[in-house]
């Protein structure tokens, strides 16, 4: 039997997940190994240096730079408030004095008698890292962060926008073929992660932002609606930093594509549970997939077939096609021919035979599919 390894998306009822939560700079870790944490808990914090503001004080006072130190009302290290005087000229016979005030809150970092500039550093910017998932701290990275482990229901998408969010899952579709429209979204969806069917419109996304929904999960979206919502064409770099007030996760692909039945049913099974979602996506080296995580899965549901999946494709494996002309379709492998076959581009490649839900069988290059792990 021929085998091939094809990485793919995870759609699983229970799996062991570990999430590394790190600070961008060294700081303070607030939890210890063995602690139980909630997704919203702050596990580490630090402070980023404040912005630096140079001020040409000598120029504003119309004095030589060398005179500046004698005209300063504040010295290096002194705190200042916005609008507070920091330097003053001597004027003429003690009259007509000029005063320079601080444009920001901060601290005087330097006074130069060469350039005539005063450098003010704004207050440090606090940075806090939350746990993101309910779980247990299984490792502490001194001064940097922690590793959190949980047993969770886990669904990966194919594309997403928006960063980490936490909310309770709410099903808004009666079937995987539904379209999520604005009329289906209500004020009761505030802070919810909404699950639609095959498609979402730009108007529905805007309505979800208006009511304060945390996220939307659907099978597909087209370029027009995505561009209409974002206001620009999305590039090929990593997504996840979009500041649109919501996180969107696409499970199947671009266009109106019914959500995979197993994905839809799995999400229905965790309706009402608290989930953590992240739309960050990177399709180049170092692949990053958008994700939906529902901690608290039953340990008895942990699958024992991970070794079988890692071994490669086999008859009966469920896969998703990731290139045209069958992009987004899900099928079951029915044959794995060992010999190379010529495809439309005239290249000789290894192929597999897929059977779709409607019974249609097609030959597809093995490089054009990804395993759906369950």
According to DSSP, the number of beta strands is 29
**How many domains make up the coordinates?**
3
Rg (CA only): 28 Å
The number of distinct helices, counting runs of at least 4 residues, comes to 6
Percentage of residues in helical conformation:
10-25%
Poorly predicted tracts of residues: 1-6, 304-311
Give the overall form. Answer: elongated
Named CATH architecture of the largest domain: 3-Layer(bba) Sandwich
The CATH first-level class of the largest domain comes to: Alpha Beta
**What integer is the average pLDDT?**
89
Share in β-strands? 35-45%
Question: Structural class, please?
Answer: mainly beta
The N- to C-terminal Cα distance equals 22 Å
Please describe the biggest sheet, giving its number of strands, its sense, and whether it closes into a barrel. 16 strands, mixed
CATH topology-level fold name of the largest domain: Glucose Oxidase, domain 1
Q: How would you describe the overall organization of this protein?
A:
Helix content is 11%, strand content 40%. It has 374 residues and is mainly beta. The protein has three domains: 10-16 and 150-297, Glucose Oxidase, domain 1 (3-Layer(bba) Sandwich), CATH 3.50.30; 52-121, Beta Barrel (OB fold (Dihydrolipoamide Acetyltransferase, E2P)); 306-373, SH3 type barrels (Roll), CATH 2.30.30. It has a 16-stranded mixed sheet that branches. Strands 5-10-9-6 form a four-stranded antiparallel sheet. Strands 2-4-11 form a three-stranded antiparallel sheet, with no helix packed on it. A hairpin with a 4-residue loop joins strand 27 (351-356) and strand 28 (361-365). Helix 3 (202-211) packs parallel to helix 4 (223-230). Residues 1-6 and 304-311 have low confidence and may be disordered.
């Amino acid at each position: 039997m021929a085998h091939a390894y094809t990485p793919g998306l995870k759609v699983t009822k229970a799996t062991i997940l570990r999430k590394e939560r790190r600070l961008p700079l060294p700081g303070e870790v607030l939890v210890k190994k063995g602690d139980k944490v909630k997704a919203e808990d702050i596990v580490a914090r630090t402070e980023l240096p404040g912005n630096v503001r140079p001020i040409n004080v000598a120029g504003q006072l119309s004095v030589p730079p060398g005179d500046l130190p004698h005209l300063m009302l504040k010295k290096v290290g002194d705190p200042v408030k916005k609008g507070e005087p920091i330097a003053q000229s001597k004027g003429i016979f003690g009259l007509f004095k000029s005063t320079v005030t601080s444009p920001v809150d901060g601290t005087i970092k330097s006074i130069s008698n060469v350039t005539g500039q005063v450098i003010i550093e704004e207050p440090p910017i606090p940075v806090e890292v939350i746990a993101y998932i309910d779980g247990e701290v299984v490792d502490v990275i001194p001064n940097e962060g922690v590793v959190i482990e949980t047993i969770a229901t886990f669904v990966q998408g194919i594309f997403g926008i928006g960063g980490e969010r936490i909310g309770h899952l709410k099903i808004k579709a009666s079937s995987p073929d539904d379209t999520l429209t604005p009329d289906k979204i209500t004020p009761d969806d505030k802070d919810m992660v909404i699950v639609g069917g095959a498609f979402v419109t730009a108007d529905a996304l805007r309505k979800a932002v208006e009511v304060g929904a945390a996220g939307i999960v659907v099978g597909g979206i087209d370029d027009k609606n995505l561009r209409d919502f974002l206001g620009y064409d999305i590039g090929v770099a990593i997504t996840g930093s979009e500041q649109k007030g919501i996180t969107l996760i696409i499970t199947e692909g671009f266009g109106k594509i019914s959500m995979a039945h197993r994905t839809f049913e799995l999400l229905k099974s965790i309706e009402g549970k608290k989930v953590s979602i992240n739309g960050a996506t990177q399709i180049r080296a170092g692949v990053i997939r958008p994700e939906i995580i529902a901690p608290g899965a039953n340990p008895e549901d942990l699958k024992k077939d991970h070794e079988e999946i890692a071994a490669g494709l086999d008859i009966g494996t469920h896969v998703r096609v990731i290139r045209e002309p069958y992009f987004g379709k899900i099928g079951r492998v029915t044959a794995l021919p060992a010999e190379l076959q010529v495809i439309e581009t005239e290249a000789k490649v290894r192929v597999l035979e897929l059977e779709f839900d409607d019974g249609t069988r097609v030959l597809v290059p093995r490089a054009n599919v990804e395993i759906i792990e369950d």
